[in-house]
Amino acid sequence: MHDFELVKPASVAEAVAALGAEGAQALSGGQTLLPSMKQRLAAPERLVSLGDIAEMKGVCLGDRGLAVGGATPHAVVAREAKAHYPALAWLAGEIGDPSVRARGTIGGSLANNDPAACYPAAALGSGATIVTDRREIAADAFFQGLFTTALEEGEIITSVHFPIPEKAAYMKFAQPASRFALVGVFVAKFADGVRVAITGAGEDGVFRWTEAEAALGADFRPEAVEGLALSAGGMLGDMHGAPAYRANLVKVLTRRAVAAA
Amino acid sequence: MKVTMTVNGKAMSAETEGRTLLSSFLREGLGLTGTHVGCDTTQCGACTVHVDGQPVKSCTVLAQDVAGRSVTTIEGMANKDGSLSVIQQAFQDHHGLQCGFCTPGMVMISAALLSEKPNPTEEEVRHYLKGNICRCTGYHNIVKAVMAASGADSQKLAAE
């Protein structure tokens, strides 16, 4: 990889200032960014490490649900969210492997918005709010296509607020080599409706399956999605799974998630 | 830039660039070549070390990013008198290695598991070792070694 300067700010304000420089990029856990830099898919001149910013770490229960600091590693969410939001904790504990979970962070995952990443499904499926150094963004407005989000240049995710549903579950059909989701389905039942978010399948990244949300809102049982058919149009296709295969997996995993919730 | 960190209990320093990986810092900077670099793409786990007790893939961590932290490598795993630790001895006893290339990473990830969960089930061992690849396909004996190191009766494991 090309050389760069590493800066290690101790606060969000310092990090934002350091990111103002030309060619600067934020580094969170680095579990995607560093491999991308080795392949020379990215070559920032300055990396601003978010790992030493204490105010961006931790999981805590508040009146807006569960707040997770942007620089909180997956392993910490898997452990500390368990008592409050088990479906979210389970999802975090199935990302990658233990070493990746010790470094990779929720903010890094959401900002990267990989179309097969798990966290975007949790954020969209929970109707989470993404809090940055300058504003709050609803999950519905945050994800804008493959590796594309509402974040501006140099904007940092400082925390993510998850409303806690009555029932929820995440089902992941893992691609065994990458351990990313070939398809992942997050189902959450709230007092005012059901949300179903799909990762790994959509050509534009994570999306809500609104037909399933309506059906499950009326009848929260696996059988409720039986009559629905998700079109293969707009589904990702690759050597691991054709669009029709992924469309079918979405339905299968939605049923399983509802049964497990 | 000179980086100092505590490696296997001792303060150690070496010159680095921004891009110097923890694996390069350990191997080339400090001469600790027990940490192996297999894939260099965060997949195989041969380079696993502990940073403040947490397992990490040292090929995917920047040395400067963990300056001042406490790192444990395979060189720090033996007992003080030089004899093999319980986990290392179990790998030997149960033939948990063939070529041995992945073994430093396997020992480090197993140590992380047993400090987090001293009595894991076979399923938990397999789940935790998911990010460590052995191309001699010696997983059954590796799992057996980890179970034995935890004090479980490894004879009861299926000998597939």
Automatic annotation (TrEMBL), chain A:
This protein's name: Carbon-monoxide dehydrogenase medium subunit
Pfam families in the cross-refs: FAD_binding_5
Organism of origin: Cereibacter azotoformans
Top-level taxon in the UniProt lineage: Bacteria
PANTHER family: XANTHINE DEHYDROGENASE SUBUNIT C-RELATED (PTHR42659:SF2)
Ranges where the FAD-binding PCMH-type domain occurs: 1-167
GO terms assigned for molecular function: FAD binding; oxidoreductase activity
InterPro entries membership: CO_DH_flav_C, CO_DH_flav_C_dom_sf, Diverse_Substr_Oxidored, FAD-bd_PCMH, FAD-bd_PCMH-like_sf, FAD-bd_PCMH_sub1, FAD-bd_PCMH_sub2, Mopterin_DH_FAD-bd
Entry annotated with the keyword Flavoprotein: yes
Keywords from the named record: FAD, Flavoprotein, Oxidoreductase
Species lineage: Bacteria, Pseudomonadati, Pseudomonadota, Alphaproteobacteria, Rhodobacterales
From TrEMBL, chain B:
Database matches in Gene3D superfamilies: 3.10.20.30, [2Fe-2S]-binding domain
Entry keyword Metal-binding: yes
Pfam families in the cross-refs: Fer2, Fer2_2
Keyword Zinc-finger annotated: no
Keywords of this entry: 2Fe-2S, Iron, Iron-sulfur, Metal-binding, Oxidoreductase
Top-level taxon of origin: Bacteria
Domain called 2Fe-2S ferredoxin-type: residue spans: 1-77
InterPro entries per UniProt: 2Fe-2S-bd, 2Fe-2S-bd_dom_sf, 2Fe-2S_ferredoxin-like_sf, 2Fe-2S_ferredoxin-type, Beta-grasp_dom_sf, Diverse_Oxidoreductases
Transmembrane regions listed in the UniProt entry: none
GO molecular function: 2 iron, 2 sulfur cluster binding; metal ion binding; oxidoreductase activity
SUPFAM superfamilies (alphabetical): 2Fe-2S ferredoxin-like, CO dehydrogenase ISP C-domain like
Protein name: Carbon-monoxide dehydrogenase small subunit
Species of provenance: Cereibacter azotoformans
